[in-house]
From TrEMBL:
Its membrane topology: Single-pass type II membrane protein
Pfam family, one: DivIC
Residue spans, topological domain Cytoplasmic: 1-3
Protein name: Cell division protein FtsB
Alphabetized UniProt keyword annotations: Cell cycle, Cell division, Cell inner membrane, Cell membrane, Coiled coil, Membrane, Transmembrane, Transmembrane helix
NCBIfam families linked: PRK00888.1
Length: 91
């Protein structure tokens, strides 16, 4: 009675091996799902960045307000009748 139990146990193990460790097993599925989740998160961040860049390009193409704002803050430019005053910020 002991040998049939051992043989059946070995058969169960042999049949379970592909399910857990094989090419399309649960461990591989879990690994691929983890990669998919990471890829989706990266894509979401990139889509947000792309949409903000697209909005900025649209503003720069259509309106002068965005160009003027960039000139003021990034280049420190002022209009001819303006005075630039810089105040220190408290920390």
């Amino acid at each position: 009675m002991r040998w049939p139990s051992i043989v059946l146990a070995l058969l169960v193990v042999a049949l379970q091996y592909p399910l857990w460790i094989g090419k399309g097993g649960w461990l591989r599925v879990w690994e691929v799902e983890t990669q998919l989740t990471a890829s989706k998160e990266a894509n979401r961040r990139l889509e947000q960045r792309n949409s903000s860049l697209e909005a900025e390009v649209r503003d720069l193409k259509t309106g002068y307000e965005a160009v003027e704002e960039r000139a003021r803050f990034e280049l420190g430019l002022t209009k001819s009748d303006e005075v630039f005053v810089q105040t220190p910020q408290a920390r």
